[in-house]
């Protein structure tokens, strides 16, 4: 069931982010992109239930700020990021806005949510590639040939999806998973490199898994 989202001005969105976001530079361009996304989110949410009633009142804190927690875990050398099961654009859209140097691909198999992502990217003028597809073998067309970072939130990345992506992962690729207090399975060939607690939560955290060669530290 969808819930009405509060009508937030750009300045109010910035103020709420400043109160809870990790030490990320909240540039004007970043805040503009996130507010453009939020404007589309309010417009589409009644029909798609992108944000449920449980987190509607704290949408900035629970979705935008929590997505920004992944920024410090993206290696400086990374150039491509694939967000699997993007849904409402968390964390993929937010990371694309915060890290414009990245080539970001948002993958969402539900057509109406994919349409929302397309609309949000257009409104924010973000050059994300949005794929209406499921990650499986064979891989859908449109994914980058070399993938440095894979992200996923609110779903367990199926082993077959990661196995399918394995042919495209760069050496030392990083997998970022937004998780609760349950210990996620460590994907085959990956090791836990870092765990970043999410501010204001006792349970939620971002877990960084590194590929067999370890994270790229160039």
Key phrases:
single chain, 218 residues, alpha/beta, Rossmann fold, seven-stranded mixed beta sheet, 7 strands, 20% strand, disordered C terminus
What's the structural blueprint in terms of helices and strands?
Layout: H1 10-20, H2 28-48, H3 59-68, E1 80-84, H4 92-98, E2 103-107, H5 111-124, E3 129-131, E4 147-153, H6 159-165, E5 169-179, E6 191-197, E7 205-210
Parallel strand pairs: 1-2, 1-4, 2-3, 4-5
Antiparallel strand pairs: 5-7, 6-7
Helix pairs in contact: 1-3, 2-4, 2-5
CATH architecture: 3-Layer(aba) Sandwich
CATH topology: Rossmann fold
Beta-strand portion reads: 15-25%
Write down the overall mean pLDDT: 91
- Could you name the CATH homologous superfamily? Vaccinia Virus protein VP39
Distance between the termini: 46 Å
Rg over CA atoms, rounded to whole Å, is: 16 Å
Which class do the helix and strand fractions yield? Answer: alpha/beta
Give the strand order of the largest sheet, numbering strands 1, 2, ... along the chain: 3-2-1-4-5-7-6
How many discrete structural domains?
Answer: 1
How do the SSEs run, as a string of H and E? HHHEHEHEEHEEE
Gross morphology: globular
Question: Under the CATH scheme, which class?
Answer: Alpha Beta
Quick one: biggest sheet?
Answer: 7 strands, mixed
Share of helix, binned: 25-40%
Q: Could you list the spans in which at least 5 consecutive residues all have pLDDT below 50?
A: 214-218
């Amino acid at each position: 069931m969808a819930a009405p989202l509060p009508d937030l001005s750009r300045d109010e969105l910035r103020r709420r982010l400043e109160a809870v976001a990790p030490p990320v530079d909240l540039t004007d361009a970043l805040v503009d992109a996130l507010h453009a996304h939020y404007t589309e989110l309010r417009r589409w949410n009644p029909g798609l239930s992108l944000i449920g009633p449980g987190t509607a009142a704290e949408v900035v804190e629970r979705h935008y700020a929590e997505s920004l927690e992944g920024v410090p875990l993206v290696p400086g050398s990374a150039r491509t990021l694939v967000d699997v099961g993007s849904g409402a654009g968390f964390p993929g859209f937010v990371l694309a806005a915060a890290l414009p140097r990245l080539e970001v691909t948002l993958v969402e198999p539900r057509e109406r949510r994919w349409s929302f992502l397309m609309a949000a990217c257009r409104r924010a003028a973000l050059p994300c590639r949005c794929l209406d597809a499921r990650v499986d073998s064979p891989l859908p067309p449109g994914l980058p040939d070399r993938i440095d970072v894979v992200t996923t939130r609110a779903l367990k990345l199926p082993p077959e999806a990661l196995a399918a992506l394995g042919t495209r992962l760069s050496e030392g690729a990083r997998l970022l998973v937004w998780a609760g207090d349950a210990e996620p399975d460590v994907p085959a060939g990956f090791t836990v490199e870092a765990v970043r607690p999410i501010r204001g939560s006792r349970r939620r955290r971002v877990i960084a898994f590194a590929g067999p060669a370890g994270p790229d530290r160039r």
